[in-house]
Write a structure and sequence with these properties.
Rossmann fold, elongated, alpha/beta, ten-stranded mixed sheet, Nucleotide-binding universal stress protein, UspA family, 262 residues, UspA, 10 strands, 2 domains, 8 helices
Amino acid sequence: MKNLLIPFDFSDVSMNALEYAMRFAARCEKATLNLLYISDSKMEKDKEKELKSNFEELLRKYQGAGEPPISYHFRTGNFTDAIIDIHKSLDIDLVIMGTSGAEEGVESPVTRTSRFVLEADLPVLVVPVSNKYFKLDKILLALGEDVMHDTSTLNLLLDVSSRSKAEVDVLTVSRNPESAGYSEADEKNENTLQYYLEMFYSHHSFAENEDILKGIDDYIKKHDVDLLAIMPKTHATTGSPSKGKLTREVTLKSEIPVLVLD
């Protein structure tokens, strides 16, 4: 994992994501952090000059001995398109984005981050602004009841877990768990998990809960999970792609970072 991309606008949300990314990158040998400032329209020269000055000041603050190198970039236009464009040109391995999460009492909240996760077929690590420290000892992979549609994305999860020596628990929350762990899909998933995650795979738990999100959250709090990983089917090429409701809810409401394996 060599190139990490952080959409950055000097807000508290993006500053928090940068702090997390710095600690994350420290575990990736020779990793580079790429900060991306996206403007809706072409910037005036004075504005661009001011931003460059702010970035240079930021680099002076964070570029100490032993710290991962940081570069910054500018793009104009649509937020998602700009990230996808630089993702290709810089051969980015992972996008790390901050999020403010859902506001209390808002029925259908949408943040720029949650929208991007649904629109872009890219791996993204979402960092809630409320998450103020870095710890990566235990990862929870939340799986559905079907056979995993794109097992190649587990390579990234193995990369992340191996660099931090973090164990990976797997959880399937079901509304009808009578046959949990005994279905053909469960057996196939178990073989896949053992093959891809190797020694970092801990175990696969099954829980009953009408509210899938609450079932995941209960496990996170009970077992002191540091990172939640999900495998959305919004861009599935086999079967029927999902509408991404659970993915949106997770990225909006999770209190810990979320790794979207897409």
